[in-house]
Amino acid sequence: MTTTAPSPSVTGTAPGTLLDFRNVAMQFPNGTIALRNVDLTVNRGEFVTVVGPSGCGKSTLLRIASGLEKASEGVAEVDTDRIGYVFQDATLLPWRSISKNVELLAELHHMPKAQRAAKAQEAIELVGLKGFEKNLPKQLSGGMRMRASLARSLTLEPELFLFDEPFGALDEITRERLNDELLRLFVEKQFAGLFITHSVSEAVYLSTKVIVMSGRPGSIVERFDVPFPMPRDPDIRFTPEFAELVGEVSHALREGHS
Ligand SMILES: Nc1ncnc2c1ncn2[C@@H]1O[C@H](COP(=O)(O)OP(=O)(O)OP(=O)(O)O)[C@@H](O)[C@H]1O
């Protein structure tokens, strides 16, 4: 596939572009134009976060990346079939135990039983749910359910992870803790990330790049490189440099909205 020059990897992974959108536009059959002129790349080793006002087309962008929707114009290339998804809702099956939920994707991919059980156990331990394998989803907190959702995707060892506001419904402390755990997984598992959030500080904290979108029809108004090294020190959030970048992104968001 044709790619733009990848930026240097921050996690030591091989360089290369996993997602490449060129001049992507989306018009739904009812006439709603959700996206226009979107140029976006996600390279190996990158964690790219998109922020933008409600209804600007962020979820549509992710659905195009996942193959659930087809762009009405432009080129949307994804150079891997190992894609992980985490949505705002953990979407666990209520009648299945946590370990059986975490095994589900591997099961759908016809992974042999013993292998998928081992993968699920490894993923459960990675997200800090050891000891809860036999519990049902309703016996877990919202944050724990989200960890299970993450674990379910990790069993397939995704190269590209798509996140649609996964922590939006959680309280601040849980959200911060999960941000730290996600960063740890990003460094350890070396997937590339495309993340959507309404929180500018979450975007800056998690990402190597932040993309700001305008109101609908969504187009990219500004891109920011986040210079803080990985693994990221949680205290970075209390530094003037961090506050300054959050301020710049917030400003671009307000400008793009008006
Ligand atoms: N299947 C569809 N048919 C018609 N219009 C749609 C469809 N899906 C989304 N839209 C419209 O496209 C626009 C973008 O929707 P999308 O869900 O991508 O926005 P978003 O930025 O993710 O919003 P939010 O931040 O509120 O979740 C909205 O105006 C929405 O109503």
From TrEMBL:
The keyword Transport applies. Keywords: ATP-binding, Nucleotide-binding, Transport. Residues 19-240 form the ABC transporter domain. Pfam families: ABC_tran. GO terms for molecular function: ATP binding; ATP hydrolysis activity. This is ABC transporter ATP-binding protein.
